[in-house]
Task: structure prediction
Amino acid sequence: MLTAPAETGLIPQRLDMGCADAVAHRLAQDGAVVLTGQETSPRALTVAAAHALGERLRQLFPQRQRSSSEGAQVQLHADSFDVVVDVAGVPTRRRHPDEDYALVQLTRPPSSGGESFVADAYRFVDTLESGDPELWGFLTRTDVDFYGAWAGLRGTPSTPRAGRHVEYTRSGRRIVRRSDGAVPLHRDPDLKHVEAMLRRFDEKVRELEGTLPRFSLAEGDILVLDNYRCWHGRDAHTGERTTRILTLLSADAR
Result:
C-alpha cells in the first residue's frame, strides 16, 4: 500500500516486472513504482520503459550515468532539461524539456546512506491553495525562466525557457515543475516579488524533504517516476554510489 504522511510523501510499491499490467496500473495510481530484481545493464532500463508504458511509449533519450563519492544530499527535483547537439550536421535531441517519465536504476549501492525519497507534487501544490494562497498563485500564474540560472552552462539553450511551475498539457494532464535553474524573466517588472516567491518555494520544498519517508533501492532496482507528478531526491551517502538514468516522452507528454 501507498504510505503518504501528510498526503505528500510516497513509498513506491515494489513490483516484479513480469506483470506489466500491474506495473502500469500502480504507476498511474501512485505516480511511482520500483521494479525489482533487474540486471544492472542499459538494456534493463529500456525494457523496463517498454513494460511500464507499453504502447504509450513515444521517444527514448540517451541514457546517462551519475556517480558520486561521499555524496551530499540531492534535493527534491523533477527531471527536465533541453539539450540539442549537432550530429554530422543534424540537430539531435539528447534531453527534452517536457520529458514526462524518468527511470533511475541503482547500479552501485553506497557503503551507507543514500536512501531515496519521493513527493507527490500534485498533493503538495493542492495544500498550498489554502495553506499559502500567495505562493499557490505564483506557481500557477507567473512565468519564470526555467534555465536562466544555467545560462553559462555549455549546451544549454540561449533562448529563455519561459513557463509556469504548474501547467497543463493539451489533454489536461497537470505538470508541476521543480528546477533549481528557475529565475525571473529578463527585466520582469515584478522582479523582487518573483525572487521572493522563488525563495519561499525553495524553503517550503526544503521543509517538505524532512517530513518524507525514506526507502532503499537494492542493486538493480529501477525507480520509475511520473515526472509531471512526482519529485525525487536522495540522502547523503558514504562511499561510491552510481545510478543509470533514462528519461522519455510518452504519448501523453506535452
